[in-house]
Amino acid sequence: MRTKFKPWTVEFLNEHPEINLTLETLKDHKFLSPTYLEIGSGKGDFILKIAKKHPEITFLGVEKNITCAGITCKKLSENEIKNAFIISEDIEKVFSLISATKIDGIFLNFSDPWPKKRHEKRRLTSKRFLDKYHELLKPEGSLFLKTDNKDFFNYSVNMFALVKGWKIISTNENYDGKKDFDAESEYEFSFRNLGQNIYRLEAKKENKNGI
User: Fold this and answer.
1) Which of 34, 86, 113, 208 has the most CB atoms lying inside 10 A of its own CB?
2) CB of 198 within 8 A of CB of 187?
């Protein structure tokens, strides 16, 4: 469901540059601690919860919907979270501003499955995106995917197997949400209440030459 535009969110983002990273300020971001990237942060439940659990880690959330980004920023501000930031941009604009091998892990939580074949390149687990993630991640960096969409999950499993430089560590077609290094997003909460299966995949970056 599309989130209705809320004008206050734009103002809130502008008033909180300590949380809201622009493309310009992202260039100067210091990757001093382990840094994890969430692509598609929604309204911020996941990044808020996992940042609370792991204050020793930096979390960057990317959300192109400015209303959702503003809601996330407000949650982080109200909870006085110091180790999580929001970037209200399309992820493809962000890629070029993060130097290679700077990211320890990537979270894809309930991404748009783009089910039509003609939209395959938009899927966040298509080859072109997996290659971008490979550039960003440190050696043996991790990628974690959760979805309620079985077809998207199966597609993603196949892509990680086909694209060079990836090793699937685990798959789960009925994930219980109990991993320590994880948190429940707003979508996950809703889907669980409806009794829908949650599909989870974890993959690691490998050398593309297999060495």
Assistant:
1) 86
2) no
Mean pLDDT of 175-187: 95
Residue 182 is among the residues annotated as catalytic for this protein:
no
Q: Using one digit for the tens of pLDDT, what is the confidence trace for 8-43?
A: 999 999 999 999 999 988 888 777 789 999 999 999
Q: How many CB atoms lie within 10 A of CB 194?
A: 8
Q: Are 136 and 37 in contact (CB under 8 A)?
A: yes
C-alpha closest to that of 72 among 42, 52, 51, 94:
42
- Give me the domains of the chain, ranges plus CATH numbers: 1-14+32-98 (3.40.50.150), 102-211 (3.40.50.150)
Cα of 115 vs its chain's centroid, Å: 19
Catalytic residue among 45, 90, 104, 112: 112
Cβ atoms 174, 153 nearer than 8 A: no
32 C-beta neighbours (distance < 10 Å), count: 7
Q: How many CB atoms lie within 10 A of CB 151?
A: 10
The single residue listed with the structure tokens 């707003």 is 186
70 CB-near residues (< 8 Å, 6+ apart): 6, 8, 9, 10, 12, 13, 88
Q: Do residues 29 and 51 make contact, with C-beta atoms less than 8 angstroms apart?
A: no
Please write the tens of the pLDDT for every residue from 69-119: 999 999 999 999 999 999 999 999 999 888 777 899 999 999 999 999 999
